[in-house]
Every structure is written in C-alpha cells, then in structure tokens.
Amino acid sequence: MKAETLAALQDARKQRRALALATRLGDGAETLIYPDRALGVQADDETLLSAARRALEIGRSETVDLGGQRIFFNVYVPPPRLIIVGAVHIAQSLAPMASLLDFDVTVVDPRRAFATDSRFPGVKVMQEWADEAFEKMGLDRSTAVVTLTHDPKLDDPALEYALKSDVFYIGALGSRKTHAKRKERLAEAGITDEQFARVHGPVGLNIGAKSPAEIAISILGQIVEVRARRLEALTAPKVAAA
What we know:
Layout: H1 3-14, E1 19-24, E2 30-33, E3 38-40, H2 46-58, E4 62-66, E5 69-76, E6 81-85, H3 89-100, E7 104-108, E8 124-126, H4 130-137, E9 143-147, H5 152-163, E10 169-172, H6 176-188, H7 193-196, E11 199-200, H8 212-235
Parallel strand pairs: 6-7, 6-9, 7-8, 9-10, 10-11
Antiparallel strand pairs: 1-2, 1-5, 2-3, 4-5
C-alpha cells in the first residue's frame, strides 16, 4: 500500500469518513473512492465508482469482476455510533449496553449537574447543546441519535438537526401525545411529514418495558433491528421490472 494511500485511510478514520480502496488485481493500481469524490488511476471509471459506492453502502469488502478486470474493494466505514441526548437514568443504562455492542457512545447534555464523567464512566460526555455538539461531531450514516430529556428546548434542536442528516436511526422518548405535539413544533420549524416519519416515537420496541434498564434494552433492540433491516435491504438482489 502506498504511503499516500495509508495517510488517506488514517485521515478518513479520524474524520469518520467512509472510504473504499479499489485495487486492480492485475497490476495493483489503486483508486480511493469517497461518497462524493474519487482519486487515483480509475477515478473517472463510472462503472467502478458505482460498484465501489454500493460496497460503501453495504459496508462490506469484496472482489468483483468489472469489464474483465478483477477489482478488490477494501471498504473502510466508521464504526457504529450512538449519540444520546439527555444524561438521564435511561442513558446511564443505555450507554454501557451500547458500548458492549461496540457502538462508539457519546452523551450530550448542557446540564452540567447531569452530564458528568462520574455518572457515565468510560463514555464520552459533551456538556453542550445538541445542535452545537452535532455541528462539531458531524453526523453520518453510521450514527444513531436518541433523545431522552422530555424537554423540547433540548430535544427539538437535536431532532431537527438529525432529521436533516443521513443518520440511520432517530428515536425520541415520550408518549404518543408527546410525540404528536413534537411533530407540530418541528413542522413549524420546517420539518416535513416525510422527514418526521423517520423518528421512532415512542422510542423502542414494544416489550412492555418499565424500568430505565428495560427501556434501554427496548431502545437498543430497535436500533439493532433498524440497522440490520437496512443492511438486508441493501444486500437484497434487485428484481428486474416486468
């Protein structure tokens, strides 16, 4: 692997950017493919770029045959990330559970009495408003966002920002009545019905959860389910139109 290729891979990992390294097995020629651009020998090959971006969507490295050329796509995607808005009791259960499933967990809450390292050991904590934290972190398709505060001042800006991104999951704690009022407020902020439909609310699988730990299990189960179904849809064979 070339030094510049290795540097690009390290930078992509640091910036949480998806990247595919396409290597032509016949001669070792390399092309770096990002979701929005490409660099290298075959950067203008639309067939290769299309195949590489599908591999990025799926998140799976593979060898393909393109026009008689054997191409190996080495896919680098950011690890799954969970951003929890609200350093509440449910978050104290949800954060370590998600960490056990190898999610990169961040808890965001501007309330300094709640968002402390002692309440969330081993988890990144940001004492900031969610939209400001999201701007710094950047949201991507490997990210799930869950709001837990019940406070519109904290939850609504987070949901509005997340709904304008390509995160794979958005969940919001609250009753059906609370969710309906939330929809009205976000509509006033310019969020369409189609956009709002992405929000899982009331959040979590319907397993009769009552305690904070049980609710955390229901939320994490739903996140895993949504992620698995998304991957299943991406990898399903396309059916030709009749």
